Automatic annotation (TrEMBL):
This is DUF2662 domain-containing protein. PANTHER family: NUCLEAR INHIBITOR OF PROTEIN PHOSPHATASE-1. SUPFAM superfamilies: SMAD/FHA domain (SSF49879). CDD domains: FHA. It comes from Agromyces atrinae. Residues 146-195 form the FHA domain. InterPro entries: Cell_Proc_Reg/RNA_Proc, FHA_dom, FhaA_N, FhaA_N_sf, SMAD_FHA_dom_sf. Pfam families: FHA (PF00498), FhaA_N (PF12401). Transmembrane segments: none annotated. Residues 221-246 are annotated as: Disordered. Keywords: Phosphoprotein.
Protein backbone atom coordinates (compact mmCIF):
# COMPACT_ATOMS: atom_id res chain seq x y z
CA UNK A 1 0.00 0.00 0.00
CA UNK A 2 3.06 2.31 0.11
CA UNK A 3 2.73 3.57 -3.45
CA UNK A 4 -1.00 4.05 -3.05
CA UNK A 5 -0.54 5.96 0.18
CA UNK A 6 1.97 8.27 -1.51
CA UNK A 7 -0.40 8.77 -4.44
CA UNK A 8 -3.28 9.75 -2.18
CA UNK A 9 -1.09 11.99 -0.03
CA UNK A 10 0.09 13.71 -3.19
CA UNK A 11 -3.49 14.41 -4.21
CA UNK A 12 -4.29 15.77 -0.80
CA UNK A 13 -1.20 18.01 -0.85
CA UNK A 14 -2.22 19.31 -4.27
CA UNK A 15 -5.72 20.19 -3.10
CA UNK A 16 -4.51 21.74 0.13
CA UNK A 17 -1.71 23.66 -1.57
CA UNK A 18 -3.98 25.10 -4.23
CA UNK A 19 -6.10 26.88 -1.64
CA UNK A 20 -3.62 27.45 1.18
CA UNK A 21 -3.81 31.24 0.90
CA UNK A 22 -7.59 31.17 1.19
CA UNK A 23 -7.77 28.83 4.18
CA UNK A 24 -5.35 30.09 6.83
CA UNK A 25 -7.60 28.98 9.68
CA UNK A 26 -10.60 26.78 10.26
CA UNK A 27 -11.35 23.78 8.09
CA UNK A 28 -8.66 22.83 5.57
CA UNK A 29 -9.34 21.25 2.15
CA UNK A 30 -6.98 18.39 2.99
CA UNK A 31 -9.33 17.44 5.85
CA UNK A 32 -12.21 17.13 3.39
CA UNK A 33 -10.18 14.89 1.08
CA UNK A 34 -9.27 12.62 3.99
CA UNK A 35 -12.89 12.47 5.16
CA UNK A 36 -14.16 11.56 1.68
CA UNK A 37 -11.56 8.81 1.36
CA UNK A 38 -12.52 7.37 4.75
CA UNK A 39 -16.21 7.51 3.83
CA UNK A 40 -15.59 5.58 0.61
CA UNK A 41 -13.45 2.94 2.31
CA UNK A 42 -15.85 2.53 5.23
CA UNK A 43 -18.98 2.20 3.09
CA UNK A 44 -17.48 -0.12 0.43
CA UNK A 45 -19.80 -3.11 -0.02
CA UNK A 46 -18.68 -6.35 -1.67
CA UNK A 47 -21.44 -7.32 -4.10
CA UNK A 48 -19.54 -10.11 -5.84
CA UNK A 49 -15.95 -11.21 -6.36
CA UNK A 50 -15.45 -8.63 -9.09
CA UNK A 51 -17.72 -5.85 -7.87
CA UNK A 52 -17.26 -3.61 -4.85
CA UNK A 53 -19.85 -0.86 -4.69
CA UNK A 54 -19.20 2.48 -2.99
CA UNK A 55 -21.34 5.59 -2.39
CA UNK A 56 -21.65 8.06 -5.24
CA UNK A 57 -23.52 10.89 -3.50
CA UNK A 58 -21.73 12.88 -0.79
CA UNK A 59 -22.85 15.81 1.37
CA UNK A 60 -20.03 17.54 3.22
CA UNK A 61 -21.38 19.61 6.13
CA UNK A 62 -19.35 22.33 7.82
CA UNK A 63 -19.76 25.49 9.87
CA UNK A 64 -21.21 28.56 8.10
CA UNK A 65 -17.83 30.32 8.38
CA UNK A 66 -15.99 27.41 6.78
CA UNK A 67 -18.68 27.08 4.13
CA UNK A 68 -18.35 30.76 3.25
CA UNK A 69 -14.62 30.36 2.63
CA UNK A 70 -15.02 27.12 0.67
CA UNK A 71 -17.90 28.31 -1.50
CA UNK A 72 -16.03 31.50 -2.41
CA UNK A 73 -13.94 29.36 -4.76
CA UNK A 74 -16.99 28.42 -6.84
CA UNK A 75 -16.79 24.97 -8.47
CA UNK A 76 -12.98 24.78 -8.38
CA UNK A 77 -12.65 23.11 -4.99
CA UNK A 78 -15.45 20.64 -5.67
CA UNK A 79 -13.79 19.80 -8.99
CA UNK A 80 -10.63 18.86 -7.12
CA UNK A 81 -12.55 16.82 -4.56
CA UNK A 82 -14.40 15.00 -7.33
CA UNK A 83 -11.12 14.12 -9.03
CA UNK A 84 -9.86 12.71 -5.73
CA UNK A 85 -12.97 10.53 -5.30
CA UNK A 86 -12.67 9.26 -8.88
CA UNK A 87 -8.97 8.44 -8.63
CA UNK A 88 -9.19 6.84 -5.21
CA UNK A 89 -12.10 4.62 -6.30
CA UNK A 90 -10.26 3.64 -9.48
CA UNK A 91 -7.07 2.80 -7.56
CA UNK A 92 -9.06 0.46 -5.28
CA UNK A 93 -11.16 -0.99 -8.16
CA UNK A 94 -14.33 0.33 -6.55
CA UNK A 95 -17.41 0.98 -8.67
CA UNK A 96 -20.30 3.44 -8.65
CA UNK A 97 -23.96 2.84 -9.47
CA UNK A 98 -24.40 6.27 -11.03
CA UNK A 99 -22.90 9.72 -11.39
CA UNK A 100 -20.90 11.15 -8.49
CA UNK A 101 -22.41 14.13 -6.70
CA UNK A 102 -20.47 16.16 -4.12
CA UNK A 103 -22.34 18.88 -2.25
CA UNK A 104 -20.97 21.35 0.29
CA UNK A 105 -23.49 22.59 2.87
CA UNK A 106 -23.47 24.98 5.80
CA UNK A 107 -24.53 23.45 9.11
CA UNK A 108 -24.98 25.77 12.10
CA UNK A 109 -24.67 22.85 14.50
CA UNK A 110 -21.00 22.39 13.59
CA UNK A 111 -18.18 24.46 15.05
CA UNK A 112 -15.53 26.04 12.84
CA UNK A 113 -12.95 23.47 11.76
CA UNK A 114 -15.36 20.53 12.10
CA UNK A 115 -17.02 18.61 9.28
CA UNK A 116 -19.39 15.74 8.70
CA UNK A 117 -19.74 13.61 5.55
CA UNK A 118 -23.05 11.92 4.71
CA UNK A 119 -23.13 9.53 1.78
CA UNK A 120 -25.54 7.34 -0.16
CA UNK A 121 -25.49 4.93 -3.05
CA UNK A 122 -27.90 6.37 -5.62
CA UNK A 123 -28.58 4.56 -8.88
CA UNK A 124 -29.38 6.77 -11.81
CA UNK A 125 -28.87 7.47 -15.47
CA UNK A 126 -25.75 9.33 -16.47
CA UNK A 127 -25.57 12.11 -19.06
CA UNK A 128 -22.05 12.32 -20.50
CA UNK A 129 -20.90 15.90 -21.07
CA UNK A 130 -17.50 16.55 -22.69
CA UNK A 131 -15.83 19.87 -21.87
CA UNK A 132 -12.65 21.71 -22.76
CA UNK A 133 -11.00 23.73 -20.00
CA UNK A 134 -9.07 26.70 -21.42
CA UNK A 135 -7.52 29.43 -19.27
CA UNK A 136 -9.82 28.65 -16.36
CA UNK A 137 -13.00 28.66 -18.49
CA UNK A 138 -15.01 25.54 -19.24
CA UNK A 139 -16.45 25.09 -22.75
CA UNK A 140 -18.99 22.27 -23.27
CA UNK A 141 -18.62 20.67 -26.70
CA UNK A 142 -21.45 19.27 -28.78
CA UNK A 143 -21.63 16.10 -30.82
CA UNK A 144 -19.63 16.53 -34.01
CA UNK A 145 -16.54 18.73 -34.33
CA UNK A 146 -15.38 21.76 -32.37
CA UNK A 147 -12.71 23.96 -33.99
CA UNK A 148 -10.28 25.91 -31.79
CA UNK A 149 -8.04 28.74 -32.97
CA UNK A 150 -7.46 32.49 -32.90
CA UNK A 151 -9.82 33.26 -35.78
CA UNK A 152 -13.28 34.68 -35.15
CA UNK A 153 -14.73 31.88 -37.27
CA UNK A 154 -13.44 29.18 -34.88
CA UNK A 155 -15.99 27.60 -32.54
CA UNK A 156 -13.74 28.47 -29.59
CA UNK A 157 -11.51 31.53 -30.08
CA UNK A 158 -8.27 31.82 -28.10
CA UNK A 159 -6.24 35.01 -27.72
CA UNK A 160 -2.89 33.48 -28.65
CA UNK A 161 -0.74 34.72 -31.55
CA UNK A 162 1.08 31.37 -31.52
CA UNK A 163 -2.02 29.60 -32.82
CA UNK A 164 -3.45 29.43 -36.32
CA UNK A 165 -6.86 30.85 -37.19
CA UNK A 166 -8.24 27.30 -37.28
CA UNK A 167 -5.62 25.37 -35.36
CA UNK A 168 -7.12 22.14 -34.03
CA UNK A 169 -10.44 20.36 -33.81
CA UNK A 170 -11.94 18.04 -31.20
CA UNK A 171 -14.38 15.41 -32.47
CA UNK A 172 -17.02 13.88 -30.19
CA UNK A 173 -19.38 11.06 -31.22
CA UNK A 174 -21.29 10.81 -27.96
CA UNK A 175 -18.92 8.39 -26.25
CA UNK A 176 -15.42 8.90 -27.60
CA UNK A 177 -13.30 11.86 -28.58
CA UNK A 178 -10.47 12.53 -31.02
CA UNK A 179 -8.15 15.48 -31.59
CA UNK A 180 -6.92 16.50 -35.05
CA UNK A 181 -4.45 19.19 -36.05
CA UNK A 182 -5.84 21.28 -38.93
CA UNK A 183 -2.54 21.90 -40.69
CA UNK A 184 -1.50 24.56 -38.18
CA UNK A 185 1.76 26.52 -38.56
CA UNK A 186 3.20 25.69 -35.13
CA UNK A 187 1.68 22.25 -34.67
CA UNK A 188 -0.24 20.64 -31.82
CA UNK A 189 0.92 18.65 -28.81
CA UNK A 190 -0.99 16.02 -26.84
CA UNK A 191 0.35 15.37 -23.36
CA UNK A 192 3.65 16.94 -24.39
CA UNK A 193 4.11 15.00 -27.64
CA UNK A 194 3.54 16.25 -31.21
CA UNK A 195 0.29 14.93 -32.65
CA UNK A 196 -1.56 15.04 -35.95
CA UNK A 197 -4.59 12.98 -34.91
CA UNK A 198 -5.28 10.81 -31.86
CA UNK A 199 -7.92 9.47 -29.50
CA UNK A 200 -8.50 11.75 -26.47
CA UNK A 201 -8.56 10.19 -23.03
CA UNK A 202 -10.02 11.97 -19.98
CA UNK A 203 -7.68 14.61 -18.54
CA UNK A 204 -5.60 14.69 -21.75
CA UNK A 205 -3.82 18.02 -22.29
CA UNK A 206 -3.76 19.60 -25.75
CA UNK A 207 -1.22 22.40 -26.24
CA UNK A 208 -1.47 24.90 -29.09
CA UNK A 209 0.89 27.88 -29.00
CA UNK A 210 0.92 29.04 -25.37
CA UNK A 211 -2.60 27.73 -24.74
CA UNK A 212 -3.24 24.66 -22.61
CA UNK A 213 -6.52 22.80 -23.22
CA UNK A 214 -7.67 20.06 -20.83
CA UNK A 215 -10.23 17.56 -22.11
CA UNK A 216 -12.64 16.24 -19.48
CA UNK A 217 -15.83 14.19 -19.55
CA UNK A 218 -18.36 14.94 -16.82
CA UNK A 219 -20.93 12.28 -16.04
CA UNK A 220 -23.84 14.23 -14.64
CA UNK A 221 -26.52 12.36 -12.77
CA UNK A 222 -29.75 12.96 -14.66
CA UNK A 223 -32.03 12.08 -11.73
CA UNK A 224 -33.63 15.17 -10.15
CA UNK A 225 -31.83 16.57 -7.14
CA UNK A 226 -33.60 16.71 -3.77
CA UNK A 227 -35.04 20.08 -2.74
CA UNK A 228 -32.67 22.26 -0.78
CA UNK A 229 -33.30 24.19 2.39
CA UNK A 230 -29.65 25.16 2.88
CA UNK A 231 -27.07 26.91 0.68
CA UNK A 232 -25.02 24.41 -1.31
CA UNK A 233 -22.33 24.08 -3.92
CA UNK A 234 -22.65 21.05 -6.21
CA UNK A 235 -20.81 19.20 -8.96
CA UNK A 236 -21.60 15.88 -10.54
CA UNK A 237 -18.97 13.62 -12.05
CA UNK A 238 -18.21 9.98 -12.69
CA UNK A 239 -15.35 7.55 -12.22
CA UNK A 240 -14.53 5.86 -15.52
CA UNK A 241 -15.05 7.30 -18.99
CA UNK A 242 -17.01 5.10 -21.30
CA UNK A 243 -20.03 4.43 -19.10
CA UNK A 244 -21.15 3.66 -15.54
CA UNK A 245 -20.09 0.42 -13.89
CA UNK A 246 -22.35 -2.50 -14.67
Amino acid sequence: MGLLDNFEKGLERAVNGAFAKTFKSGLQPVEITSALKREIDTKAAVVSRDRVLVPNTFTVRMSPADYSRMSALGPTLVDELTDLVQKHAASQHFQFAGGISITLRADESLSEGMLQVDSANVKGDVAWTPVLEINGARHPILKGRTVIGRGSDADITVDDTGTSRKHVEVQWDGRRARVRDLGSTNGTQLDGQPVKESILEPDSVITIGRTRIVFRVLAQASAPSPSRTEPATERHDMGGFWGPAQ
